[in-house]
Amino acid sequence: MSVRAPATLSFLLLALSLAASLAPECSQPCACPAAPPPCPIGTSLVLDGCGCCKVCARQIGEPCNLLEPCDHHKELYCDYALLSDTDTGICMAQEGQPCDLGGVIYRSGESFQPSCKHQCVCMNGEIGCVPTCPGVVRFPSPDCPYPRRVRIPGRCCEEWACDQTPQDHHYESVMGGASQIHPLPSSQPIAGFGEAALQDLEPESPRENCIVQTTEWNECSVTCGMGVSSRVTNDNQRCQLERQTRLCLIRPCDSQQEKEIKRGKKCVRTPKARQGMRFELSGCASARSYRAKFCGVCTDGRCCTPHASVTAEVEFRCPEGDVFRKKMMFIKTCSCHLDCPRDNDIFLASNTRRMLGDYQRHM
Predict the structure, then answer these.
(1) Measured distance CA(281)–CA(287) in Å, rounded
(2) Residue 124 is assigned to a structural domain of this protein
(3) Spatial distance between the Cα atoms of 206 and 204, rounded to a whole number of angstroms
(4) Within a domain: residue 169?
(5) In a domain, 239, yes or no
(6) Alpha-carbon distance 213 to 309, whole Å?
(7) What is the count of structural domains for the chain?
(8) Is the residue at 205 inside a domain?
(9) Which domain holds residue 298?
(10) Which one of 118, 165, 265, 312 has the fewest CB atoms closer than 10 angstroms to its CB?
(11) What are 82-112's pLDDT values in tens digits?
């Protein structure tokens, strides 16, 4: 016993020293900057391996370590077996389905730019993209009566330019020639409505004379799994056109809906989840569970898409402690037809069937 005790003690001390050498960074108190670092478009802001500070996640093929973790929202992990240095690894993607876009194959977890106007990522066979150009819409104003987009040589995104006359003819614009308009000789100022009265008037809100225009929600960007649909509206305080987005889940990708088709039937139109489920988005989960309805499948070549839906806000909670809310489509009924959308087609969509009774509510 007296001989084995020192050997056991030395082994424990060696193990403790090895563990301390592997993670010396976490032994110190957290010292994070006042503001989180700005991350490039498409790069997640995550907690470091010590659970201390938020850092820009490392992407596929980049070196990673305890304080510079990989982007788990894209299902990346740090592989320490690729390098001889045990403290540094390479970000690798989990096994998943690749993506095919225009004949180009992308690995799951790989980020790419199909054009200078989009930053995309492949996630297990599905493609998600964010625009790199600002989507600001400029309306006519007295100092800019005829705004138009122009291409600048050497730049990707178009910019707004102001013209004083329209491009299709050379007549003087009302806005541009307002300073040359004079009142008729017979016109007189209204009594009691002088400059003092004009100064007391409050500026008119653009919302008061706004003619609200809203397009229909377009189809979901994917046929299974979490996707995005959008619409354009000016239903806001500034009465300016803006693009609104909402999440959509037509059906889970791992569901076997064919088994739910009843004998003698060719379709299951609007199946409902057998039990409550939490929606997942980029590694975050919904705060509560939902028994959602989905669009089913057919055995005769038809596809089922949403026919009536509602839009509600869903609260998501992330492992880093962040909480955010997103609008999401909840299916009420689906219709089965032959006008089917094409899989993974995020830029060209063939299915433009209108959904009925779409309104917002709290779920």
Answers:
(1) 12
(2) no
(3) 6
(4) no
(5) yes
(6) 20
(7) 1
(8) no
(9) 226-360
(10) 265
(11) 776 678 888 888 777 788 887 888 888 788 8
